[in-house]
């Protein structure tokens, strides 16, 4: 049952990353993330939903090839309060640009309060 909840929350986050409508994105981020979420990404660390929103706006939607699309590529693996999932970022034409794994921590009421993005493959 936990994995279903975690998959729903992760999918809300992924949908928020793909949504260009700012109001819809805010709604999805509010459903998926705690207000004080800690967001670790390849560009640094941010705190709060606004930091996640800024990353989506600047990096995901601000890509030089145009707004890309984030796709969850694996099931959500959820041992306890932590979960991980694989993803792929595609160009507007569907070409793969980057892939990786996100690790998220969920609160008892099902909000993501920590996100760690691992972009690229380990060698």
TrEMBL record:
Signal peptide (UniProt feature, chain positions): none
Highest taxon of source: Bacteria
One Pfam family recorded for the sequence: SnoaL_2
Domain named SnoaL-like: residues: 10-112
InterPro entries in UniProt: NTF2-like_dom_sf, SnoaL-like
Name this polypeptide is given: SnoaL-like domain-containing protein
Species, as recorded: Streptosporangium saharense
């Amino acid at each position: 049952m936990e994995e279903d909840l975690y998959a729903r929350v992760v999918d809300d986050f992924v949908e928020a990353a793909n949504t260009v409508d700012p109001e819809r994105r805010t709604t999805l981020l509010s459903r998926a993330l705690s207000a004080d979420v800690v967001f670790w990404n390849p560009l640094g660390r941010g705190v709060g939903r606004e930091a996640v929103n800024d990353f989506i706006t600047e990096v995901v939607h601000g890509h030089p090839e145009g707004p890309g699309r984030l796709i969850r590529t694996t099931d959500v693996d959820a041992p306890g309060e932590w979960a991980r999932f694989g993803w792929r970022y595609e160009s507007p034409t569907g070409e793969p640009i980057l892939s990786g794994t996100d690790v998220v921590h969920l609160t008892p009421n099902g909000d993501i309060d920590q996100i760690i993005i691992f972009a690229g493959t380990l060698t």
